């Protein structure tokens, strides 16, 4: 088969959320963005890749793809996925090493893996060697602005849908109010349902430890992003002084950042995000780094894609079913019931967007 890349088309969509969602440091979410790429080979086989944002930065990612990354990929052999990942990273190294460059490279890398799986006529998770058809999944709420009534309504809905784990946002400005709110919400969730909290980088070491200790009787499965993601010394200090296990990953945008977080020895629930760490190639490395430490690998965001990655590795942890409803714009429905998600039995990664639904959110190229 002719594996040479013939053309690449990138699109940028800005999609409104059904309600305004708040967390501690990203603040208000009114939209999310999808930045897609479609790679076409000389053989006319096509691969789809994408990344996302919380509503900001999508234009920069899109321009980087169109102006700098796609042009160097056209004409290359698509099956050399790992080599191409390195080449793309070196191409924008000076302005990159993480940040928006990792988001842009992720979109292309995911498309190349889609092509690899399609060439092999396999679903992605089977191509990766996976044999588990079920992945533990939990609901990741973005609820810091919810009234207690809305909180109650949403939690009841998630329990009704079969979720066996719920993550809430924490991080109000007032520490006392924050812990009171967390306690009230904990009372809404049955004790056999996993309960996680996510501070979205809100605190310094002292405040994070105060909150961490104050939550110790609430059966918290993990405390996510208590402080700045790349202040590894602060993260370590917090982890060493509280009982609740720590989580992070969505803001680790290079493999070296991810490795540094693991080296603190207090990251017990690592959550690499395929859309923000640079694609499937580095995500698989990250999963292996976790396995080397006898840790499960969990995920952040992009549940419709991570379900295949978690099903494909030997050490799957928890799939976050994120509040950005990317899966609602897909042709194949996201499969979830009774606390578990199932990877799609479709050749390739199985994420195919419904252009009729996305069309009206397309921005000018
Ligand atoms: Mg988070």
Broad shape: globular
Question: How helical, in percent, are the residues?
Answer: 25-40%
- By DSSP (H or I, 4+ residues per run), the number of helices equals 12
Main beta sheet, described? Answer: 9 strands, mixed
SSE sequence, one letter per element: EEEHHHHEHEHEHEHEHEHHEEEH
The CATH superfamily name of the largest domain is: Enolase-like C-terminal domain
Give the overall average pLDDT: 97
Q: Spell out which ligands are present.
A: magnesium ion
Low-confidence stretches: none
CATH architecture of the largest domain: Alpha-Beta Barrel
The CATH topology label of the largest domain is TIM Barrel
Structural class: alpha/beta
- How many domains? The number is 2
Please indicate the percent range of residues in DSSP E strands (runs of 2 or more): 15-25%
CA-atom Rg in angstroms: 20 Å
Number of strands: 12
Distance between the termini: 32 Å
CATH class term of the largest domain: Alpha Beta
